[in-house]
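Re: the pair you flagged

First of the two:
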Amino acid sequence: MAFGLMLVLEGLVPFLAPSTWRQTFARMIALKDGQLRFVGLASMLGGLVLLLIFA
């Protein structure tokens, strides 16, 4: 169920604002490995905080 919810949430931006999503994705590709790892770490920590709040 959690995986399905993640797919729905990740699909919202490309569905509602495809040009914005494309620009954001292009900026992500331009990031260095360390910067991209930081974004991934921040996403994981944010998700963990949300799980702790709502669980």
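Second of the two:
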Amino acid sequence: MSRLNRKRTKKAGLPSGSLVYTGERKDEKVSIHVIDYDEQNVTEEDLASVAACIPYRNKPTTTWINVDGVHDAAILERFGECFGLHRLVMEDIMNTDQRPKLEDYGEYLYIVLKMLLAGRNGEIQTEQVSIVLGANFVLSFQEGLEGDVFNIIRDRIRSGKGRIRKTGPDYLAYSLIDAIVDNYFVILEKLGDRIELLETELIENPTQKTVHKIYQLKRELIFLHNAVWPLREVVSSLGKQESSLVRETTVPYVRDVYDHVIHVIDSIDIYREMISGMLDMYLSSVSNRLNEVMKVLTVIATIFMPLTFVAGLYGMNFKDMPELDWRYGYPAVLGLMAVIAGIMLFYFKRKKWI
């Protein structure tokens, strides 16, 4: 998993409201995409500047402005001036290691949550999404990584399917949150498949790479827990209708998202317990294999102890040892050693030691 820890040292000592980007350094151009709609019409376009957003600020329709890229402080500052956003909001948008939270600024709500994406190599990538819900607009700020999970929302708006065109910006904000949460289940399904394969490997042929995979999964699940757990409080607060920006008709849908978040948290906790159990299983497997090896070596050493004694006894070569001059002395001693070894093997098997 990439970007588990963001660098915040660059902000140390700066006053509150300082616009400093804490994510991965990017040189790409910030893209601004707007979808403006009501029940009858949809307008969609890419904007060249923040100034082009001004006509949408007070329109009676619902406006969704999506910004890809939060590394340019100047552009975000213009957004703050255009929509009257607090300086701390702009700081939090650029600070990409925020925990999920909801803040009510009266005229608008500021929501932070984590969007999870599956990377090309199966690793989980995380991207911070900031949502600003106003009276007639929704602003969404993404870090500008590869893709997002909002295409299904865009398609609904374009086609007019469902309730989204008949409702206001609060339902749009709910839809964006719901799309992000639903994608958590996709990520969890992929993690579940990885855990099943790892269990099979652990039972059939555990190696040193197996324990590395276990620790990697454990690390990812800890991160997922930290990214999703605070979202429960965010969605719960949004569903209590404490703000006039969230209408009563939208509250049941928000509560449904809350149930999904609880389900995701429960699944993560179950997977964490499974990973801990797999780690214990691996350690037990290694210990059992070591015990089996030690048991075999102990049996071999025990069998050879009397044989070594016999070989040492007749290796002293004293002059008056009668067996030294006996014609059948050598085969007799070998036979005696074979009988002793056979008796000991029979005794060990009877005791079920081998």
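The longest helix spans residues 251-313.

-B.
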